[in-house]
Prior knowledge:
There is one protein chain. By secondary structure, the protein is α/β, with parallel strands linked by helices. It has a single domain, classed as TIM Barrel, CATH 3.20.20. It is built from 11 helices and 10 strands. It has an 8-stranded parallel beta sheet, sandwiched between helices. Helix 2 packs parallel to helix 4 (about 60-70) and helix 6 packs parallel to helix 7. The two termini are about 30 Å apart. The model has no long low-confidence stretch (mean pLDDT about 95). The site of zinc ion has 6 residues, from loops. InterPro entries: Aldolase_TIM, Class_II_FBP_aldolase, FBA_II. It is an enzyme of class 4 (lyase).
Amino acid sequence: MSYVNMKKILDNARKNHYAVGAFNIVNYLTAKAAVEAAEELEQPIILQTSVKTVKAFGITEMMSFLKPIAEQAKVEVAIHLDHSTDVAFTKACIDGGWSSVMYDGSQLALKDNIKNTKEIVAYAKPKQVTVEGELGAIVGVEDDIVVLAGNHAHAKPDDCRVYLKETEIDAFAPAVGTAHGVYKGEINIDYDLFDEINQFSFCPLVLHGGTGLTDEMFHRLIALGASKVNISTAIKIAYVQGMATYTKLNVDQNDPLKLDAFTKEQVKKVVTEHIRFFSLRN
Ligand SMILES: [Zn+2]
């Protein structure tokens, strides 16, 4: 079966020193484009949905078109909920058919983050749904979660040890200096911290804020053990700019299917570039 949870995909990536792209899709077209790119490269893929996107469609409606794409894919596909700060909503998506969820309690005190993450893990495990957790603050805007640059905080190794041990999550996103959205100014990634956490973490590490990192940064972080890399902004840009380009070039055409086909190719191109790079064995 091609519709899987994240664990199998990521454990294999970690063992073999490559990373799997997790792409934030916004509708059928972007999901289909992403999976076709993965199929052509014969690589696994994670389709990520933001809470905002899921709410725009509705849980049942969104899963009704995502699940068939995953089930019919020629490669392994996980469908993952990104940055959910709401315990009840996270559980609703687990019930709704997501094979993986991220519960983001990073803005809470450590003990409350642990408590809520544990609750999600206990709910998800019997359903074979995997859970990603976060510690520290990844700056920028993701969905409606705003973390100001001044409030940025790297994950603390001691907190990470406690959090991992207590929660038994399947994938871990420690904040090490990457940011959501488009980077402003210099990017300061703490590679040593990332390496240290990866050494003691029993589960694969996740890199948020992938858009805008250089090839060298990706390469270094994947070599250090990043197994999942999140790409959201680059997909949004490819989608919106693809549409803009097409309508500019074909002012009086008004052909939605041709517009969709063109836009889909632009999204596919961006996904392909990322998967090709992430899947190189380090
Ligand atoms: Zn993120």
